[in-house]
């Protein structure tokens, strides 16, 4: 097989995966998958259950069955019964599962909606902000990270004894910088019941969603969320510890943010950055994590970071050496990798 034929096969498979992603997005937004997880339905029953049109339901069900996502009984086109089996149902619908990837397509759709703006940015500079990408982007990121924070963050930190002891101090004040939808802050509060947690973010809809989540989780007495500006962190300090979960690479001026964190945390207090577990150096072909992060970077994170000027233009693929350089310029003397493994695509760094 020629190189052209090999790449043609790969590109065809990638294109088909794109349409599968769009199908998943439609199936989730229209309630088709949720209905088919409850019981097997004909396309007519699915249309009635979800207030959608039968002919489109039939095409969706046959498409997903052709991919093996749905099971199907034999029969005429309108008598076939379709169902979503437990495995795909967990991945698509179970918001607490570590296998939950249902919202992944929302990020791709968010970028797709702004493709003309992205192309303009690639030509002339500037970017496309998180606010421009809208609810599909912000809500999908929060939803994808939620099970990892809810189920794994507390135990992961407990496995680092000195960090665990500092976070568990009575009356500890913990800052969650770039908190997004708030699930990391809520996880910190559950893990350390003697602490108060303050989440900060520049995105107003995310702060609103975080406040609602705190109320729903019964943690609003110990977790608060603040719409941040450049001076907010210093004004709210001092803190006993600070975290920045998967957000530093999005920030246009990461050194300024790290400097503000250093100034706001008491001397010796832990500063922890969780970011993507990319390779130490660029290589091509790259591993799956780097490939995935380059995809997010080109269409989501780098345009967001470059939407504000001046900008470091970090992008999602923030190598450990890049973070170490930012930390050094912010006044930190050391960056160490914490012994936390098996935490999705992420790596934890402690700055001191």
Automatic annotation (TrEMBL):
Alphabetized UniProt keyword annotations? Methyltransferase, Transferase
GO terms for biological process, alphabetical: methylation
Any Pfam family from its record, for instance, is Methyltransf_25
The UniProt entry, under SUPFAM superfamilies, shows:
S-adenosyl-L-methionine-dependent methyltransferases (SSF53335), Winged helix' DNA-binding domain (SSF46785)
Question: What InterPro entries does the database record attribute to this sequence?
Answer: Methyltransf_25 (IPR041698), SAM-binding_MTase (IPR053173), SAM-dependent_MTases_sf (IPR029063), WH-like_DNA-bd_sf (IPR036388), WH_DNA-bd_sf (IPR036390)
Q: Any idea where the Methyltransferase domain is?
A: 174-269
Q: Does the keyword Cell wall biogenesis/degradation apply?
A: no
Name any one GO molecular function.
methyltransferase activity
Q: What is its EC number?
A: 2.1.1.-
Q: Which protein, by its recorded name, is this?
A: Putative methyltransferase
